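Usage example:
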Amino acid sequence: MKPIKIAILSLTHGHTRKYYQTLNDNPGFDWVAVSAESEKVRDVFYQHGYDIPCYMSDKEMLDKHPDIEAVVMASANNRHIEQFRLCAERGIHILSMKVPTFDMDEYDEMISLVEESGIVCQVELEMHYNPVVNRMKKLFSEDELGVISGINATNITLSPVWAFPWQGVPEASYGKRIPLNAGNKRFRGGALCDHPHIFDMIRWLTNSEFDYIFAEVGPNIRVDIEVEDILLVNGKMKNGVSFLFDPSWSRLEERLEVPGPGWEVFPKRMEVNFNISGEKGVMLADCFGPNVYHNGAPNDRYTVQYTYFDEWIGMMDEFIHRVRENEPPMINLQWHKKTIEAMNACYESIQTGQPVYL
Amino acid sequence: MVNYIKEATNKLARKYEVEDKSELNLLPGWQFLDKKLTNNDIPLLSWRYNRKFIELKKIVAQEVVEDVSMLRFCSLGDPGIWSLNSLMYRELDLCEFLTGSKIVSLHATLSSNLAGNIIVKMESGVIGSIEIGIQVPSGKPLIERHEIIARRGVASDIVVDTQVPQNSIYTYTQKGDFGYKDTDNELFGMDEFQVEWARSSFELLKSPGQSEQLIKQHNHLSRLVKSALESNSNKLKVKVV
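Running the assembly step on the lines above writes:
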């Protein structure tokens, strides 16, 4: 199969560096170029040592490399719509970040752009390619738990705002500056916007959609950011499954400008865990464990050193296949729309103080 | 089993456009203990491709823990899969792999080919203990621990305040209690040991030049196992030449 000529846009998303090795190693790709949003971002990219040209504008890069067939859109959420337009106009396939946009008019425009231009657009929800999730899905398909009654899921991390500042800027992360609720000095765009996975996973695992959803924010543990960092969500799916989600930034971090060793203050910087109850029993899953552990450099703190991060391999294998076969990916814009609607419903619930029906 | 691993290795070779050499007999090195190697036999150090050992090695090599003083290893297995010698082979290699130093002496006390305790000394001065046994009931997973103690920090594949390796998923259902640990989505369905075997086979196909070094290390590990048996028989510390 002919390798796909691919580029990365912007380099400002927290997941950007996860793509480097896959684009470099997978013979299905010919990694052609990257564009950077600032000189600082460009310099960080150069430190990784890849011999890939870096441009300071998307358009310049695409003009200089008209053979680019696909891009990883690794940018802030508020930049996605213009980049979608640019790519659709040129017939360039898109690997979108996990939040294409929270603006549902923009979202519909993205769907139209993809349909009308005939490009392939896959949404980066890498948990679908996680081996533990794969096992959960298998156990579900084998009816190991019987009829499911309740799911508790966490997607809790440190906050990336110091390394990726746009994630703490309401306009860049949520797309608009909207207070969380009356009299609140904080705005939409924080931890919730960073954590769509559990909203997506529950739909996939239960094969059901959200019925209603309720969310509550707590006092921020980082008092100097203007977006939410602690919240809880519960509700029911249309098939009656009750759920509880924790999508908080509840693990503190060192305020590093470039992620690296010693970033975490709490030993485990990121977890996606599930507790699931069914008529035949219960399942407890840790999608990022077990690992290895140390209390060495740089901070002599007990630290989880992760061992399993190969989601990007499977996800990009699917992207190659879908582009070459010109088929809609498993995780496409239409599928993901209901997840984004549910996340918006959380903000609406925080605003009104009541559950929101979907 | 061998065919299953070959199939997985072949899948990786096709995906990454690496030439597959099906004539090679790629097995974990301990399977060649006490056997004369033929031309196609390659004794793999498959555990070195287990992600947990790769990360532990990095922690030492990158001086996240600095100035290692002691290793505390334990490996208790199912006798249907493991022998005392095969566990010794694997753990002795891990001592050298994780510290980057060679074993220069050892003292072993072994009981009826069922259990044993070994103290090793590395060229670097690091000492290590290896606890091995094959009295875990059939079907149970390998109970292992690899702890590295340094002047700055401790590293381990066991989480603090626990005694046994953890799983990613636990189910408690009417069928009983089960644990699942899936570590590699590209090779989904294989257990941890099958994954490391397939990964090490693939790496050999990618870099065939490493076979000479693998055979050299196999010969060295075979001598170490023999030395442990001698040490036990003679009740003496043995220097490894």
